[in-house]
Structure formats: structure tokens, C-alpha cells
Amino acid sequence: MSRFSSILVANRGEIALRVIRTARAMGYRTLAIYSLADADAPHVRAADDAACIGPAPAAQSYLSVTAILEAAKELGAEAIHPGYGFLSESAEFARACEDAGLVLIGPPADAIALMGNKAEAKRRMLAAGVPCVPGYQGEDQSEAALLAAAEEIGVPLMVKAAAGGGGRGMRLVEDLSALPKALSAAASEAENAFGSRELILEKAILRPRHVEVQVFADDHGTTLHMGERDCSVQRRHQKVVEEAPCPVMTPELRERMGAAAVEAARAIGYRGAGTVEFLLGDDGQFYFLEMNTRLQVEHPVTEMVTGLDLVELQLRVAEGRPLGLTQEEIRLDGHAIEVRLYAEDPAKNFLPRTGHIRLWEPAPTGGLRFDMGVETGQEISPYYDPMIGKLIAWAPNRETARRRLAGGLKDSLLIGLTTNQRFLIDVLEEDTFVEGRATTAFIDECFPKARRAVPEATLQDAACAAALLYRLERDAHHAASLGVPAELLDWASGGPMHTRYVMGAGHAAYDLSVTPRPRGALLVASDDGQHMIELLSLTDTRCAIRMDGKTVSTGYIWQDGGAITLSRAGVVHDFQNQIALAAFADEPTGSGIIAAPMPGLVLEVSVAVGAKVAKGDVLAVIEAMKMQHEIRADIDGIVTAVEAVAGLQVTAGGRLLQIDGDG
């Protein structure tokens, strides 16, 4: 037995929080590590103790075996859970933990090393009788040997890095004349990513499903599987949506695939949690792809259909205890679907994005699980994977789970940086996915670049923004007034009052008038049409609006200066009342304190401390809503402070410069 009472989680983000949650519930002392970029991260506060392991770059922190082992010693850790990513599939790290007298909550180092090399893993699986894709995994890596093997396999074929995954070192070849270039590019990419130029070739199974089987093994002779997950919805060979069970699975196919996965684990003397991944053709034939020797990102869908806590089972096995389960006791109940929220821009080939999370607020809908690693106010840095969390829905059947998850995404507020939130909603509502027909070609076939772009703000969006801004500003003025009865709000002796707003967002701008109507309604009109809007409820971050008889939910962030950000059904638009902006710039009496009239990016600063300026001189230029705005002096005087710096992101009201009018 390998009893331990303290666990260091050698990871960050949502998986660190996930492991800490179960470990604490089981009575273990939990320990965290963090880089300088993560000093204030949620996982650090969630643990009982934490240690800094280095600067922001992963190579100097989360990938530093020495730094992690030193932290384990400093914090008094007895066991280490590697999570996923980083060092979770490093045989070197597993052996270093063993040498340091630490229990690694994972498989044996030899199993990690074996399955970490695709060529050797495939050779072992063939020997064990596990179905494999026809291909070449020989030791002769000369171009001549690879070309000869490719001729025998035929096209289309996949060139893959033997030492890694995640789509790196991978090329699809549909014409043998393109093979030499693909070999060179894949080998170079593989060397940069994994330190090895070794490649394998496989017959390309076009438009397959990506189906994986969760396996578990203990040291007492038990190896079993916990059903499958369909992970076919991918971009750049990386998973985006996962579900359990697979929509086209049959009991007979599950039995065959599960048996193959169990045999794969037994063949390498496996222990702990692992995932055997297969390609499933439309003819029902399946082929071994690879084995991940760790907990998977998508493990929650298995937990939700089996009722098991996989982290709890990992800790049980790591201590040398039996799983306490038989294959017959594993039952799949209902359906679960998971989506991965990424800080990325789907319209720009899913390019990762950084930024500041101004607001994260999960949907209040029931039946959802949020495994998130972020919170309001957090910065998303460029140093780590862009995944910021996962949403998972369970229901008795697939369609209910799908609708519940789409609704949860629409009602969750994630404001402040570009994400794939709206794209995920579109995926869940695409007919091919709804009907359970998605393959690994789904995103490429159904979502060309034009379909991934966030739509421009519409007149309805602008009308909602204007109505909400009117109400918020009216209530703020009323709260600041003395002795004005609520009954007099929106009333004027001269008849209905019209308030003009020019609501701009992105390239769109709408000239609107807002007119109060009986019973609190607002008529928002423009030259292109009008909408009757009623605000049914209003909190600090959400409101329910009835527009032309239809109720919609909207999340928002309001800032002084006529700026309001709306989030409707996963689409975020930053609106600015351009009339308020002009009024702010033309304010007749100046204070000398020059503040940003809206959130934006400082493009240029034209003056320095000591400069003599006159009212109206351009001091700086800010870019907001894709437009450039000149910031001008509001008084004559001498510049005494300059806080604005080109490249700085500023918030509305943030001080930029100061002018002393006595100078």
C-alpha cells in the first residue's frame, strides 16, 4: 500500500481545481504550484498551500521537473497528480517522482513511455491483436523506406509524429507526389514539438468518427472499461465537443470496442485511468489510434453517465487499493455532452486570443456542470493553452442534453475577450450534429470561415442597448436626486420626451430615439424601423427584455460615458453612445484631468511632461469600436503627468494625462 495524506497538483487552471475539489472532499491536504503569471489564479487560492515554481513561460515553470519536485519537498507533498497536458505523459517525470519517494497518481513510467511513442505503441497493439489502421511504423526512417511504404499503403494517408499528438507533426497526403514535402514538414514540426523526428504512416480513414474508451486498472488484477466517448467534433485535430455515449453505438459494438481497449491496457501492464482512442468507420470497423496515459479533458461526460468520480478512483488506485468495481456494475445512464470554451477567434482559423475577463457569470440553468479555471477580473496570458473551461450537460436523452447545453451557453456571460462561445452554440444547433451524424470532417465541411464570424450588431441589438442605457442612466440620475417621486419618472409637462442615441458597435452605427410609453415601455425608433421594448427585470449584470412581444435575456456591463456591452445568446457587442462621446469631448469647462471617454487602446501619445498646450490641442489617440478618437486638452496649461502609453488598454474614465492650468 502507498498511503499518502497530501497531494500536490502539478498543473493549473480548471483541471487543478477539479483535482483539488475531489481530493479535499476525500480529506487529503491539497497543494498547488503556480508560475508568476498565475500568482492570483483561482487554483492557488483553492489549495491548502502553494508554491511559486518560476516565471511565466511553461518551460521554466510547469514543465520544469526540478522546480516541481523542489516545490513538492518545500510543501511536504507525498503524492503528485499531474492532471493533463504539461508533464502528465512524461515518463521522465514519472521516474523522477519515484526516485524522489513521491507517489505519482498515474500509470507506471514504462507504460507512459511505451504509449508515448506511436510507432512502438502500434507494434505492441498489433502483437496484442488490437485492430490497427494499416500503415508503417518501422525503425527505418529514411525517405526511401517511407516512400516505399507509402506506395504499398496507398493514398490517402496520414503522416504522423511518432512521439506526440495534438495535431502537431501531422499531415494528410492525397497525392504521393506531395509526400516528400509532407515528410520534411512533419519531421521538422515533430522535432520542434517533441524532440524526435520519427514518423509513422497510416492509411487515412476519411470522415471517421473519433471514439475513445475510458479504461481503468488497479494492482489487484482488475482492468475494465467505463463506456465510450464520441470526440469527432474537432478543429485542427483538437477536440471541441465530446459526448457519451456515442450516438451510433450499439451494444455489440460497445462490447467489441471495450474488449479491445481492455486488452490494450492489459498488454502494457497498465494501472490507473487511461483512454484508448479509436477511429470508427461507417462500416462499423474500428482501428486503434493511440492511448492517452492520463485523465482526459473530457472525463466529465463519463462521470455524468456512470455516476463515478474518476479522480476519486485515481486516488484509490494510487494508494494501492482495489477499484472495488466489476465490469457488470458499470452502467451508462442518460446522455452527457461537453463543450470546451477557448479564448480564440474562430473567424481567424481559431487563433488563440489573450485579454481581460471583464465578466464571467455561468448560466443559472439547472442540469449543467461548469468546470472553469477562470473568474471575473482574470487576465488570459499568452503562455498557456487557450482553453479556459468546460460546460457539460446531462439529461435522460441526447436531444434534451443538447438543448440544455446550447441554452446554458446562451445564458452564460463571458465578456472581455474573444472566445468560441457563439461558435459552440452554432455547432450544437447545426443539423448534422443534431442528428448525430458528425464525423471528424464536420467542422471543415459545415463551418467554412464565413460561418465562423461573429455577426455585426443589428438594429435590434442597438435598440436593446439604447433602451437599457436609457433606463440605467435614468435610474442613476434619480438615485442621485433629492425628493423626486418615482411617479414622475419619464413624465414631462410638454408631452412625450424623445432622447436621441447614436449607438455604435464595430462597423455598425444606429441613430435612434427613445420615447417613454405607458406602463414603463420604451419605443425605440430609427429611419429603418422601430421596436417596443419593456424591461421586465434588471440586475447588476442581467436583464430580461420583452421586444415586440418576444422575451429575450441579455447580459451587460455598463460604464460611464455612454458605453455599454451587451451579451445576447453568446454574441458580445461593445456599444458606445456616440452623442455622449461627443458631449464628453466638448465639455465647456475643463478640469485638466484628461480621462479616457471609453474603453479602448492607446495608439499614440503626442505630448510629454512639461509641454505647454492650449485647449483643443490633440494629446493622444485612442482606438475604440474600430474607430480612432482624438483626446484633446480641455484647458490651457502645462502637462504635469502622462500616464497614457502607446499600446496600453484603458477603461472608460481611466486617467490619461493631467494639465496644470496655472502653468
TrEMBL record:
Which UniProt keywords are present, listed alphabetically?
Answer: ATP-binding, Biotin, Ligase, Nucleotide-binding
What sequence ranges are listed for the domain Biotin carboxylation?
A: 3-448
Give the source's domain of life in one word.
Bacteria
Q: Which cofactor does it need?
A: biotin
Q: Which InterPro entries match?
A: ATP-grasp (IPR011761), BC-like_N (IPR005481), Biotin_BS (IPR001882), Biotin_carboxylase_complex (IPR050856), Biotin_carboxylation_dom (IPR011764), Biotin_COase_C (IPR005482), Biotin_lipoyl (IPR000089), CPAse_ATP-bd (IPR005479)
Q: Which residues form the ATP-grasp domain?
A: 122-319
Matching entries from SUPFAM superfamilies are given as: Glutathione synthetase ATP-binding domain-like, PreATP-grasp domain, Rudiment single hybrid motif, Single hybrid motif
Q: Which Pfam families did the record assign?
A: Biotin_carb_C (PF02785), Biotin_carb_N (PF00289), Biotin_lipoyl (PF00364), CPSase_L_D2 (PF02786)
Q: Where is the Lipoyl-binding domain positioned along the sequence?
A: 584-660
Q: Which PANTHER family match?
A: CARBOXYLASE:PYRUVATE/ACETYL-COA/PROPIONYL-COA CARBOXYLASE, METHYLCROTONOYL-COA CARBOXYLASE SUBUNIT ALPHA, MITOCHONDRIAL-RELATED
Name it: Biotin/lipoyl-binding protein
Query: Which source organism?
Result: Ruegeria marisflavi
